[in-house]
Each structure stands twice: as structure tokens, then as C-alpha cells.
Amino acid sequence: MKEKRVYTNDNIDEWFVYLDEAVINALEHFSKPEIKFPNVNFNEFKRPLVVGSGNAAVTGKIMFDCVDAVFASESDYLEKLESVSDIDGVIIISASGIKHALIICDGVRKKRDKKIPVKLFICNEKLLEDSSFVKKFDEILLFPKLAEPYTYNTSTYLGMILTKTGENPKDILKFIKKMKYKDFIKDEQTSYYSYCILVPSHLHYSTEMFVTKFVELFWPECVGRSFTIEHARHAVDIIKSDKELFLNLGVKNDRIGKNRVEISLPKDSGYGCALAIGFYLIGRLQRKKPDWFRKGVVDYVIRASTDFGKHIEALVE
Q1: 138 and 210 housed in the same domain
Q2: How many CB atoms neighbour CB 302 within 10 A?
Q3: Are residues 174 and 317 part of one domain?
Q4: Does 220 sit behind a cis peptide bond, omega within 30 degrees of 0 on the bond before it?
Q5: Closest to 155 measured CA to CA, from 200, 202, 122
Q6: What DSSP line would sit under 27-58, residue for residue?
Q7: Where in the sequence is the domain holding 119, given as residue range(s)?
Q8: CA 176 centroid distance within chain
Q9: Across-strand partners of 226?
Q10: Are 260 and 253 in contact (CB under 8 A)?
Q11: C-alpha to C-alpha distance for 253 and 274, rounded to whole angstroms
Q12: Fewest CB atoms less than 10 Å from the CB: which of 27, 93, 106, 120?
């Protein structure tokens, strides 16, 4: 029997990667012909309740924005289930499936007298070996992923999003590799305390995912914000700071913010491309900043394991 590997600070050089590398790894993985995405029927339910935590919730919004869905998090899904009477199915988005997925499923079963279908979208193949877990759900769809440091969730949610958008990971990878380094961030621009990513309005959900990634990797040592270019016209830069850099991702901006840099997006970019390039950008910044996340992630997963009552590794395989 193969001995289970433990990921610690002592061997962190052997397993840790920065976020930009995780993006490249994911795109290369998805470009392999043997990697297949599951078939998702986005119109199976007329009024689905789509539930997720953090960036899983945003992934659900991106995937099911095409239907009359009700979106919720682990905090308010029961309220939505009670207040919206015509919900005819529940879709839970979860990369690992080991934290809130089962809690949400059980909550739905208890809340609704009449059984409604509950589907789970996950990337954790090991859970399919647990028959007691599998039978809780009406259907489980497994999406491809790679091993990544805890909470990156780059390959996981990117794979789900590409399933919806149909974007070609090879094209995204090719664009990133062709861009000059200056298109991302210069060395002298890593001294800022605050960063704000502006995006085109049609990519509005990406702002939530960028903020979450800033929180996970940098807060409270470094602050990150994100808005659509239209939202940014509404009082986001009343206080102009020499310590903040505005990163214009695929938008023209010559007024908002004191310090600005433009980062191009391919024409007609979808969420998959925007998120890959945005996360790559944040990863380049991560490399230049002090190793706050790298030094803290192992201790954090020890605390998280206690909180969730499940063993969580610093590298999620």
C-alpha cells in the first residue's frame, strides 16, 4: 500500500507552486486530448437553486446565468429555498466536496417536504469511492483538475467554466505565453499596497473571483479590489493614492485611479480567458511580494481541518 504523502513546511519546496504557474499547468492539462469534460444539461431545470461557497458560488453564476436560476451561498441557501417556491432542482458547486457540500444537501432534504433533485459538481474523484456519500445525491458530475495548493482552485473552477463557455484552453495558453512580461506587471509596480482590477462589463462576475483571490493570497498585508469599468465610474477613486495601482484588464481607462497600467485581452474573451489571465497576473504579483501565503497555508489547513472536521492537506490532490 502506497504511503500517503504529507505536505508540510519542511518539504514545501517540493510541492508548492505560485498561482501563475498553476494557471499554466491547468491550461496545459486541459489542452491534452485525453482530458474530457462532462456533459452538462444547463436547461434541465426551469428554476434551479445553484449553491456554492466563495468562488464556487461565482462559478455557479457563470455556468447558469443562461437560465432563470436562484443563486445562493452556504449562508443563505435555506432562506432562498424557503422564499422561492418554484425551485425544481438544486445544483451544488464544490471543488473538493468535503466541506459544505454534504451539509447543504442534507439541509435541502430537511427543508423541502417534497423531494427535489440534488446534483453535485465536484473535482474530487476519491469521493466517488464512498457509496454512502454518493447515494446522498441524485447525480454527481466529475470535472478534471490538477493538484494545487489549498484554496487556489484554479484548475477546478476554470475547468467548470470552460465546460460552459466552450473556450479553447490552447488558445488561452498561447495568448498568455505570447504576451510580453510588461503586459502583466513590472518590478517597480510591485511596491504598491493596493491593487484594483477593472474588467469589461460583460465579465462582471470575474470581479468577485479576483477579490477572493486577493483576500486569500494577500490580505491583510496587501489589498485588492475589482470592478467593471462601468461600476468604477461610481466613486471608487474619490481618495486617490500613490500606493494603489489600477490594472485595466481589457478596458480603456485614462481617468479612474492615479496609477494605471493596461493589460490586453484577446478579442471576444469569455470568462475562462479573463480569469486565466487575471489569475496569472495575480500570480506574477504573488511572486514579487513577500511569501505571506506560502508561509501561512500549512498552518491554516491545520486550523481548517479542525473547523470542518475533515483532514485537509496544504496540497489538494
Answers
A1: no
A2: 11
A3: yes
A4: yes
A5: 122
A6: HHHHTSTT--PPP--TTS-SSEEEEESTHHHH
A7: 38-142
A8: 19
A9: 197
A10: yes
A11: 17
A12: 106
